[in-house]
Amino acid sequence: AEDGIRDAQESRGLGDVYKRQVQERAAIAMTTKARFSQAENLPEAEEKTKKVRPTAKKRVVNATSFLNIDQFAHIDNTRKAPEKPVPISPILGPIEIQNPTISSKTYRWCSCGMSLKQPFCDDTHVGTSFKPLKFTIEEKVDKVSLCACKLTSRAPFCDGVTCVKLKSGEESK
């Protein structure tokens, strides 16, 4: 079939053009083949063509290599636990609840001090790190003293000491 095509092209005067194109294609194929065989024989050539992303550690070293580390010696890089937020103390003293419901009701004690329904939570804390403390009354009692200063050691119940220390200006431990 190729001989027929060549004969037809030669009769039209395209033989020389066709021969030149075939030769050029063959030369291109040979040079391409030679390049691939050279790349297979040279492992360095493969490494040069292969782009490897540096590890995170290398990227940090590369990024900070121009910095003078002594400039940053005064910075303390140790991670500290975030400070505990301080609640608002609406009242310095207990709030007494008369005849609380036993076992069947779950109360939500306000731990932020911003609630308008003290000592219970009205969700005013939303958007802060405070959360209400849920509790139930298990025994029958006439009254319960709930902490209003929000700094008690027995939350939600008043410990009777913290409020006195706050009123007198004494520091609590």
Tell me what the structure shows:
The structure is a single chain. By secondary structure, this protein is an alpha+beta fold. The chain is built from five helices and four strands; from the N terminus they run H-H-H-H-E-E-E-E-H. The strands form two sheets. It has a two-stranded antiparallel ribbon with strand order 1-4. The chain has a two-stranded antiparallel ribbon with strand order 2-3. Helix 2 crosses helix 3 (43-49).
Write the layout of secondary structure elements.
Layout: H1 2-11, H2 15-41, H3 43-49, H4 56-64, E1 94-98, E2 107-109, E3 133-135, E4 143-147, H5 162-168
Antiparallel strand pairs: 1-4, 2-3
Annotation field: number of helices: 5
**Principal-axes shape call:** rod-shaped
**Low-pLDDT segments:** none
Mean pLDDT: 75
Largest sheet: 2 strands, antiparallel
Helix content: 25-40%
* Rg estimate, integer Å: 42 Å
Strand content: 5-15%
- Classify the secondary structure makeup into a structural class: alpha+beta
* Adjacency order of strands in the biggest sheet: 1-4
Task: Give the termini distance in whole angstroms.
Answer: 103 Å
> What is the succession of H and E elements?
HHHHEEEEH
Q: How many E-type strands?
A: 4
